[in-house]
Amino acid sequence: MKTLQEKPQLEETVTIADFEKTFNSSSKTQRKSLANEILIDTYELLDFKDTGYKPTHADYDSFVTDFSAYIRQKVEPEAYRHDAQLALAHVRAVQLPTSRKFKTLERLADNVETKEQYQAVVKTAADLGDKGIKRVYNNLQGLRKRLRKGDESAIEEAQIPSAMIQNLIHDPYRDLKSYKEVARLRDGLKDKKNPNLKEILTALGDATMKNIATGLGNPHSELMQSFLRRYGICSDDIKDIKKGRFDYHKRLKRAKRSLNLYKEIFQNPKKLDTGIKDFVNAVALNTIRKKDPEQKFETGNMVLDYSFRTRTLDAILQELTRDACINKCEQSEPRCCTRDYFKTGVPSQILAVQSFEAIKNKAHLKISSNSNGDCNYHNFDGCKLTLFKSPICLGHICSVPRKDLPGSDEGGRPRSAHTKLCRSFINSMCEIRSSTLNVPPDWYMKSRSSNPLSPFPEVLNRLDDAIKYGSELVKLKHGEKLGKQTKKKTKKSKNKKK
Ligand code: SF4
Ligand code: SF4
Fold it and tell me: Which of 82, 212, 371, 450 is such that its CA lies 20 to 30 A from the CA of 175?
């Protein structure tokens, strides 16, 4: 019999029956600890609140039966809690960050368990949302007035990205009515000794301010899109707000959404009990793999098998690319998140978990299904998903972080000794990007097949490659840092000696 202590070597040989035997033959303390690991992982994946369930079972079968029944009974209350939080996610962006009423509502939403409590939260959220949206609109009108009067502080308050202002400064003529006037200002600027230079510059400054004000009046302008993005609304919404047709109460009417998402995750809507038990068993198998990450065995559950690797790769990317993306990105918002890429090549089961994760991470979501062009999970502090990114998001690495990979010289060219590793890593990332998770039959066949040679879904192999090369690069990065530090120290000690 294979035990946890023996470290199972062959992926296909580890089954839930092995886990059961190990669990049953473990000491009371070990059993408790294993059960707690399963509990924590299950809650994390489903975003369930820990309400104090205590496993005290002597054998695995009674634990899994009892815990699955507990989860079954919590599904509906948790679904209402999530629906309430989803309503808040749509209102969050139009609230003042310090709003005490909104904070109270957040606390209330976190304790929702019934339909009535959910409806009460949605009603208050919609009231707050309607007030918030009016405030946003009035603020927009006020900013436009001030810009027309030449009040420069309004530019800062409108939080217009500096790249957009630069464009307007370089092309301030475009909204001036008369070509004669444009020509006069342009010609006047050419003569550096022109006595009217000051007057011309002032006229250009005024033109720029007016252009910004005009842009903030046009729902389809880039300036307006950038302004609206912060509030989770789009150009069509602003037209509705102008005509007094915008109503949060109508838009938040979508009860029972999360219950359907849970059914999606458990993959067996007709026999929820069986679906939940299968899920908990898959989490249990995953606890073995966590103890030995080198193992390649799969649980046959898409959420767990994919998420195990995305977490590992995400931790590697934090080390390799995060700094470049935060500090050296050359794109204006929404950076590379210009579409709902989280949906690309991803099956409904992963979409369901993503939705819970975004809400848990306090995303503010667009209220309208029409898009301003950016991803629904892209917020001003970045992506709200960390555990379940789609392959296209996970594998994206543009030229900026590529240049920052360890082993690159200052011009971004990989140094010869490291070229191969960098290239292998980048290639594997590109392969992930072109993979798709929309292949449930792969998972199905793998989980049902008794043939140990039945292939892994391809995306998992590609993730494994990126993890392998990425880990090498992380080691290299730490080695380089160490090298630099030692060099510095040697220099210092040499100087001292001198
Ligand atoms: S991948 Fe490139 S575009 Fe995207 S955030 Fe990083 S640096 Fe910016
Ligand atoms: S899911 Fe995240 S990384 Fe992907 S496009 Fe959306 S915000 Fe960007």
Answer: 371
